[in-house]
Amino acid sequence: MALVLWRFVLALVLSFCAVAVIAPRPAPAADVIVTLDQARLVQMPERVATIVIGNPLIADASLQPGGVMVITGKGYGTTNFILLDRSGQVLLDRTVLVVGPRGRDVVTMYRGVERETYSCAPKCERRITLGDGNTYFDATINESGARNGMATTGSAPSK
């Protein structure tokens, strides 16, 4: 009887250990959270000589005077940045999470599998957002490019 009880307790302990090992764990919290197509200022430690970005398709960084770094969200996801001094010593290693636009003024519309994003403040206008459907994205980016071209040259596009 004691042997059966001991085997039962052992099986129970091993079951709990297995569940603890395979159970999903929450992702570690990001040190810096940036919204896509926006920037965030980060105060840097002294003596920074080099900034390394893990995945420049997700975030970009630039060093500014006064020990400030500007991190810009370029694509959805998580990456990191590492700050090095002149001798190559790591001064800081942080995680960056780039998230989609949020707020009451952003409206996302799905037409089947195609997505369109609008900025509604107060009137809804097309918004260029990573992940929108190809047709919508291309039309919006072309419209924006034409507008920027007219602003640069000061003339309407030729037809």
List keywords for this structure.
159 residues, alpha+beta, Immunoglobulin-like, 2 domains, 4-stranded mixed beta sheet, flat
Stretches with pLDDT under 50, minimum 5 residues? none
**Mean of pLDDT:** 83
CATH topology type of the largest domain: Immunoglobulin-like
Query: Class by helix and strand content?
Result: alpha+beta
Residues in helix, %? 25-40%
Q: Strand percentage, roughly?
A: 35-45%
Indicate the CATH architecture of the largest domain: Sandwich
CATH structural class of the largest domain: Mainly Beta
Q: Main beta sheet, described?
A: 4 strands, mixed
| Counted beta strands | 10
Q: Identify the strand order in the major beta sheet.
A: 1-7-6-3
Global Rg: 25 Å
> What is the total number of structural domains?
2
Number of contiguous helices: 2
| Terminal residue distance | 93 Å
Q: Name the helix and strand elements from N-terminus to C-terminus, one letter apiece.
A: HEEEEEEEEEEH
Globular, elongated, flat, extended or rod-shaped: what is the shape? Answer: flat
Describe this structure in words.
The protein has helices at 2-22, 134-153, and strands at residues 32-35, 39-43, 50-53, 59-64, 68-73, 77-84, 90-99, 106-111, 114-120, 124-126. It has 159 residues and is an alpha+beta fold. The protein has two domains: 32-99, Sandwich (Immunoglobulin-like), CATH 2.60.40.1080; 106-152, no CATH class. The strands form three sheets. The chain has a four-stranded mixed beta sheet with strand order 1-7-6-3, with no helix packed on it. Strand 8 and strand 9 form a beta hairpin. The chain is flat. The mean pLDDT is 83.
